[in-house]
Amino acid sequence: MTKTWLITGCSGGFGRHLAQQAAARGDNVVATARNPETLRDLADRYPETLRVAALDVTNSEAIHAAVALTAEVFGRLDVLVNNAGHGFMGAIEEATPEEYRPLFDVNLFGLIETTRAALQLMRRTGGGRVVNLSSGAGIVGIGGHGYYNATKFAVEGLSEALAQEVAPMGIRVLIVEPGPFRTEFLGRSIAVAKRQIDDYSATGGAARSYREGNDGRQPGDPLKAVAVILKAIDSENPPLHLPLGPRAHFLAESKLVSFRKDIDAWRTLSIDTDYD
Ligand code: NAP
């Protein structure tokens, strides 16, 4: 059955691949980007089924306009993909509020506002999928990536709660947790703390050199990732968590092991805290 999609952050990377693949198989797509010119070629290739909207996810009016356009042109919404996001590297003490707040504005608050606006339409048209781009960084915190971790951990918690709230309406939530994939993410989509403190050279400093050594060399193929995401969206029983790539799987497995270790080591003491 033909689906109708609304996707944020389609100028490149996962968002663009998803918009392209969905349109190529005959689905209806509202592809959005801060600069809609970046989507002109897709709009020309799929004039009947792909619409472009200007959308900066920090702009609430633009979010509502994109959802209204989806309703007006296609009459329904089956798949919302909250993909827009960017990264930040630096130790917690190194970064200033001016540097780290924009990360939350896009990765978390933008996702929340887009979801709230889209759910009205999804509920009206009887179910669907909310696909939230988290990250391996939403599973395990790593020094030098703390602010990015914080935004993606928040996406995870929010998505788990949302999944329970919307399940009775036939809406399923899918949290996508990619490891390193070769998009623009480590290039133009990542900011770095200006202030560098020597004491954090092994954490904040290591994160900065990770970027330099890995941009354009990430092992993950975004087209393969998108193929798996499409399968999960189409599945009658999609997973709540979908780690993508060997690194994300390693992080998920190591989280399970370290969590287990902490719980077991302190079980007797930490469980015995209710009133006698
Ligand atoms: P990308 O190629 O850099 O794409 C990021 C997209 O987000 C761009 O289209 C960018 O648009 C858009 N964006 C940034 N701020 C925005 C805003 N305020 N409003 C609307 N769009 C905005 O990187 P990507 O890898 O495809 O990233 C997509 C998602 O995957 C992100 O949420 C990221 O955290 C997640 N992810 C990526 C990786 C990876 O290794 N690639 C791993 C884990 C998770 P502009 O062109 O306007 O900047």
From TrEMBL:
Give the matching Pfam families. Answer: adh_short
> Is Protein transport tagged as a keyword?
no
Could you identify this protein by its name? SDR family NAD(P)-dependent oxidoreductase
Give the record's family classification.
Answer: Belongs to the short-chain dehydrogenases/reductases (SDR) family.
Q: Which NCBIfam families match?
A: PRK06180.1 (NF004824)
GO MF entry, a single one: oxidoreductase activity
Recorded source organism is Solimonas marina
Which keywords, in A-to-Z order, does the entry hold? Oxidoreductase
- Give the transmembrane region(s): none
Domain Ketoreductase positions: 3-184
InterPro entries linked to this entry: KR_dom, NAD(P)-bd_dom_sf, Sc_DH/Rdtase_CS, SDR_fam, SDR_oxidoreductase
Entry keyword annotation includes Oxidoreductase = yes
